[in-house]
Fold this protein.
Amino acid sequence: INPAVELQVALRETDSVRRRLTSGRLRPKSPFELSYAIVSAVTHNLERFIEDLTSDVWRLEQRVTGGHMGNPEEFLEELFQARHGLLAVRTMGALGAEVYGRIAALGDRVPAKDLPLVNDVVDQFTRIRGLADGEREYLQGVIEFYRARAETKMTIAAERLAVIAVVTLP
């Protein structure tokens, strides 16, 4: 576990499933059903995380299209932190889909009644990857727009400085 992650956060999904098991609301009949419950909780939280980042991206986009220049270093940091979060979630979705895709491919080792659960997990992770990819592409457009605006302002400032230098140096 990453030392920066609190233990209760790292165990959020498994604790949720444990509480459902203890209360009797969840009664898995196979290890695949238990795995499905845990992974579904994970993908649900990943999707919620993407939704939160989508709200952040929307606010960042509003600032960019509204002409915000402010402190460019701090603003770029916000943009790149959002992108990093989306890349992290995308990676989790992609790797999860690959792992469970491989399990699904081992058809003779997965009971027929559990194969739909494994395939659904692959679909859940694939959806997470797709959502993160879409939002990351959108954010990349926002970043490019902001950078283009900043570069244009820098070019205009450099041209003005050149004119001032030409007039004042002689």
